[in-house]
Amino acid sequence: MTHQAELFKPLINKKSRFFRLLRSLFDLQFITIYIDIKKHLSPLTKEQDLIDIGCGTMPYSDILSEVKSYSGIEHRKHASLFNDTHNAQCKNLSTSILTVDSPPWPIETSKYDISLCTEVLEHVYDLKNFLLEIKRITRPQGLLFFTIPFATREHFIPNDYWRLTRYGIEKLFTESGYRNIKIYPRGNALTVIFYKISNFIFLSCLSKKILATVFGILFLPLGLFFHILSLLSLPFQIGNDCLGYTVFCQKPDQIQTDSQ
After folding, report:
1. Domain that holds residue 182
2. pLDDT tens-place values along the chain, 260 residues long
3. Which end of the chain is more exposed for a tag (fewer CB within 10 A), N or C?
4. Where are the beta strands (DSSP E) in 101-233?
């Protein structure tokens, strides 16, 4: 089976900072995740030990600078994609990165107060064991913060396996022993429509096919218009569609964990 080439690959080295900036302005998935982390997670991280699971380039570390410690783990197969000078974007934040294989990981049990996992679960084939391992390394009553895409293109091809509904998320997390599970949609049906149109035009500009590139350039103003509409639509609750989900949950205390 042949796989379609991916147009947007990780922008990972220092020379790509300008392009990463552009992407952060036009990648609606990134924008909505950044907003949720800054609004909901950042105020809770002061003097906490945090681990960023599937950390990549640690793109949200600049808004989590009040943590006591910031650790990251990345799969050994993918770690080479990311420049090891990326460490936190916040210059005052000291970080450490561990490269791992599939669970179990060489991390002590109940080590971290907060576990952060953004846009990773769709790339994990064995979700149940992955979630159990994250729960293991999180302290009892610790906070876990996930983002999971829904209406988004295939990426990191061919390692892109799932698009979970909120009901699938709730069932999976409950069966994995998580508690106080709260699931929030990012965006709405209109956001998805506007996002798909603008994203198609933006990606056309990057195509290797001349006609597609010409099309993208000609319709770029329209793409920018729909991108603005997608941003303006974010606060509203319309329809049953969304860009993805933000999930808050907790690891039970030790008594609850032992009784499972």
Report:
1. 14-186+243-259
2. 555 555 445 544 444 566 667 777 889 999 999 999 999 999 999 999 999 999 988 889 889 989 999 999 998 877 766 654 444 454 556 677 888 888 899 999 999 999 999 999 999 999 999 999 999 999 999 999 999 999 998 888 888 999 999 999 999 999 999 999 999 999 999 999 999 999 999 999 988 899 999 999 999 999 999 999 999 999 999 989 999 999 999 999 865 544 44
3. N
4. 112-118, 138-149, 179-186
Query: Which residues have CB under 8 Å from 172's CB, separation 6+?
Result: 127, 128, 131, 164
| Direct distance between the N- and C-terminal alpha carbons of the chain, in angstroms, rounded to an integer | 42
Number of domains forming the structure of the chain: 2
How far is residue 139's CA from residue 123's CA, in Å, rounded to a whole number?
A: 25
Q: What is the DSSP letter of 48?
A: -
- For residue 117, the cross-strand partners are 146
Same domain for 137 and 85: yes
Structure tokens at 219: 């319709």
Give the Å distances, CA to CA, from 57 to 76, 154, 181. Answer: 14, 20, 27
